[in-house]
Amino acid sequence: MTISRKLVVRLAVLALVSAALAGCGKPGGGKVELNLLDSFLPNLSESYNVSLNLKIKDFEAKHPEIKLTRDQSSSDVLDTKVPTLGAANQLPDLFAARSSWTPKFADAGEVLSIETLLKDNKTFMDGFIPGMLNDFQYKDAHYGIPWQAMPISVMYYNMDLFKKAGITKVPATFDEMLADIKALKAKGITPIAMGDKGKWQCRLLFSGLNVRTAGVDYLEKLKSGQMKFTDPPFQTTVGVFEKLAKAGAWNKDFTSIDYTQARSLYFNQKVAMYNEMVTFAQIEDDQWPAELKAATQFSFFPQLPGEDLSKGINVPVATDWGIAFNSKLSGDKLKAAQAFAVEVLGDDYTKVLESKGGIGVRKVEGVDFSKVPEAVKRYFDDLSPKVVVGGHIDGRMPGAVTDEVSANLQNVMLGQEGTDKALQNIQAALEKAVPTK
Amino acid sequence: MRGKRAVAGPLAMNIALFAVAVTCIYPLIWLAYSSLKTENEFVRSMFSLPTALQWNNYYLALIKSKILYFFLNTVFNGVTAVAVIVFFAFCIGYFLARYEFRGKNLVNSLLMIGLVVPVHSLLVPMYIQYKLLDMVDHRGVLILPYLGVMLPLGVFLIEAYIKTLPRELEQAAEIEGASLSQTIMRIIVPLSGPILITAVIIIFNFAWNEFPFSLVLNASETVRNIAVGIMNFASDWDTKWTLRIAACVISLFPVTILYVFFNRQIIKGMTEGSVKG
Amino acid sequence: MKALNRKPLGKLIAVFILPGMFLFAFSIVVPTLVAVWYSLNNWQSLTRPQWIGLANFKDLLGDALFWSSLWNNLKLALYTLIGQVGIGYLMAFLLTSRLVTSRDFLRTVMFFPVLISTVVLSFLWTLVYSNDYGMLNVVLRAVGLGASANAWLSDPHLVVEALAVPLIWQWFGFYMVIFMGAIGTIPKEILESAELDGAVGFKKAFFISIPLTYDAVVVAVLLCLSGIMKMFDTVLVMTDGGPGNASMVLALYAYRVSFRNLQLGYGNTIAVGIVVVSLAITFLARTLLGGKRYAR
Questions:
Q1: Does the distance separating the beta carbons of A46 and B123 come in below 8 Å?
Q2: What's the number of CA atoms in the CB half-sphere (13 Å) around residue C57?
Q3: Cβ-defined contact of C46 to A110 (cutoff 8 Å)
Q4: Radius of gyration, alpha carbons of chain B
Q5: What is the DSSP letter of C25?
Q6: Which secondary-structure segment (H or E) carries C267?
């Protein structure tokens, strides 16, 4: 009976497959279990990663009754993973989340507000610098604790390359910058590095300039309809892009290299200027060559035509990522999560971060600033910037709008589109995505 | 019969073919020597040769990260996927090649759908599906999505190949009294050697490099595969390129060895041609 | 076309076909149907999806980015058909003829790109295309064609063509191997008698080899077309759809809408669009190519 033999073989395979697929039972335990999905990969040397991992180890040591299971992935990977888990309503207890996801998760009721999490710990709640939680705000409550704040748009200037082109100081006005660009190009030095493959780097400069031309709350005003992208402040900003494009300021392949490659251009002293959202805290850990450390000055984008800088410059900071808490937390798990928030993301960690030059989100005192790199000290002491929170378009605008901003900015930077058309497109996208009531 | 032109033609062609072959092999060479550079060297000039061989990169990649463990996980994924998929693909492919039956169009249509669906749009439905069945983070769960993606490919390739085998083979065997399974096992399968081995290599390679399904369904460290593991050498601010490349080279070993080993078999199978008479 | 006379057909179907197809249906058909259901909902904020029927599809028809992405996919389909399948067949033909030396070596090496992960290869090709230190421009400048040196992946007019090259380069070996297997099943007597009749080179290809391996050609075309319509990794790594949206392809657009903009409803609508278009194209291809003409 050969057919039945074949059948038996087939059934056996099917049985094997099913056996292999049969679910395993879950282990029990007397401990409180917490799951953490984070991006603090231990094999990388970023300062805040190192500090946070140390703090987490301390937390685990101090709380033997809590079993913390960690799943770690890079933030690129989290961009796919967290929305998938969110869609399936299977988010872990604690997870790293982008501030731009806040409205979606909060609306869906999947995340716990910080106010609820810390309702027994008012002192901790008050310890946050006012405004630092703004990016995680949704309708009067906040839904995440960021682990650092980063200035959105810092200009790096390589003074050695400037000297080669006969320039002695950082450009103070935009016209001076255009002249410097001309001089640099005459010497065959690429003026500014840009790695916009991920499309967000051009938005950093866009956001940084908008804070200066349109005020730090321009995003809220745009969303409520009080301002439009076609208004004069934004015309100034995009006009800057247009003029830089005409001057040939960027490396030609800026749309196909990403930020790491743009940074390489700066590290290898192939470009004179670079604009980025920077974690000052990691400059020590990066492999910056000594000459580069000495030659670099951090500063702001130069004064725009018609800009009044007599009252100082606003430096917007953003908190793009933070730890969010699952709304299903309750009882012991909730207490464990509270402890985590207070001990891992609290004052101790902030002190360590700030001693390396980073910007923490909590009010702390007695920080040892001796190890902060020279260039960072000069940025803060000499220029006295006013740190304000907000203005990063990625944190507060839906993806459809930021996509449109990047697409149009890239076209402007390639000289393929004019300022007016670009702003009209962006405004149209805004009106479609965020209808004003 | 060989005039000057007759030789020059093939010569130019041979040179051109060798040039193409060199471009095909260069990435492997580049990966190998790039993995032995320091991070600084790599960042300064991506194509230059290393000044000193940094075997330390392999130590870091192997020991400090858990790559070896992911390696074994991925071997498991690959082997089970190949076994299951090739088995079913052969059954279905043979049947489609040799028989007409009422549901044939339905089978073809379903397989076509599997061929055209973009992978990422299935991530959320699959995650919910396997979560409901409590199969997420289970070692065997990936066989199913892999089957879904690779079965159509396997079926169509095997079907096309079997169609080239003359029906006289089966008819001769039937006349001699052999049963269907005997015919298949003793005659068809050996003759299908080349396509089966090709399918094995393609499917194993797919399982080896596969990323999105593993990321979503099998992300926990105990069952993570090597493609996902390698991604963790990158992050927002600080990508250790040389470590990542060393991990890629480690990752390339099994498939390359599998291929070079089986390649001999495929070539033998192909040059022997088909059955005579 | 005598069907083999054996046990009742039904039992054979149950044994050969059903188990595999059942697993397949469970693995892919079910999630696909679920994805179709999502596409009929407005699933913006991860709350309970709201049924909106075909409203998403109406938006899709008016979505300029969908159509421009489709156009890019169609261009790439043409390039890869000629490149992957065409060059693949050419290589298979050459490497089974006597004109080429070291056939085994060439054959082995040309398959290597298939084995390397797409992400790694795409990254390598971005280096090759780099404006300042990329190999392509270095070579062009070295031979005096420096004026043609370009930022290839940043040029909206050339970026799609530039993307076609790595795709062709990575996969032609796959098709070559398939075709070599198919050519290998052609009985030697047929090839020898054709050569005696004077058919060499292209004549031999067109009138002998291709017809006798036609099934493989049809399958290759179908695999190539279906693969290019859902192509994702290469574009993601090399240009992420840029500059602007010049190199946006359908699968990347669906991914971006679903996972970056968190619009799972509309993202799945795009995916359904991909499936419909792909099925239409493959159906068209299958009809145009016939397929049963040269069965032996």
A1: no
A2: 13
A3: yes
A4: 23
A5: I
A6: helix C264-289
* CA–CA distances in Å: residue B120 to residues A168, B214, B232, C77, C173: 52, 12, 20, 20, 26
Residue C29 to residue B202, Cβ atoms within 8 A = no
Going by C-alpha positions, the residue among A32, A141, A38 that lies closest to residue A94 is A38
Beta bridge mates, A303: A173
Q: Which chains touch C (3 or more CB pairs under 8 A)?
A: A, B
Q: How many CB atoms lie within 10 A of CB B26?
A: 15
- Return the exposure string of C243-280: e unless at least 16 CB atoms fall within 10 Å of the residue's CB, then b: bbbbbbbbbbbbbbbbbbbbbbbbbbbbbbbbbebbbe
Q: Is the pLDDT of residue A285 over 60?
A: no
Q: Which residues of chain B make contact with C117, given a CB cutoff of 8 A?
A: 209, 227, 248, 251
The answer to whether the CB of A228 falls within 8 A of the CB of A324 is no
Render pLDDT for A347-359 as a digit per residue (tens, 0 to 9).
988 988 888 778 8
For residues A248 and A185, is the Cβ–Cβ distance under 8 A?
Answer: yes
Separation of alpha carbons A247 and A245, rounded Å? 5
Q: Under an 8 A CB cutoff, do A255 and C11 touch?
A: no
pLDDT in tens, C84-108: 999 999 898 888 877 777 888 888 8
A413/chain C closest Cα distance in angstroms: 10
Q: ipTM strictly over 0.90?
A: no
Residues C203 and C186: their CA atoms lie apart, in Å, by: 16
CB contact under 8 A, C185 and B266: no
Phi, psi of C20 (to 5 degrees): -60, -45
Task: Report d(CA C55, CA C64) in Å as an integer.
Answer: 16
Angle, alpha carbons B112-B116-B118 (nearest 5°): 150
**Residues in CB range of C202: below 8 A, 6 or more apart:** none
Token pair for residue C103? 């056939």
For residues B164 and C214, give the distance between their C-alpha atoms in angstroms, rounded to a whole number: 10
* CB proximity list for C21: less than 8 A, separation 6 or greater: B92, B107, B110
Q: List CB contacts (< 8 A) between A81 and chain B.
A: 215-216, 219
pTM: 0.86
DSSP state of B122: G
Record: contact A21-B143, CB cut-off 8 A? yes
Chain B: list its partners (3+ Cβ pairs within 8 Å): A, C
Q: HEC states along C147-167?
A: HHCCCHHHCCCCHHHHHHHHH
Cβ–Cβ under 8 Å, residues C53 and C40: yes
Q: Which of A44, A88, A52, A87 is nearest to A68 (CA)?
A: A52
Of B147, B201, B271, the CB nearest to C24: B147
From chain A, pick out residues whose CB is under 8 angstroms from the CB of B135. 21, 23
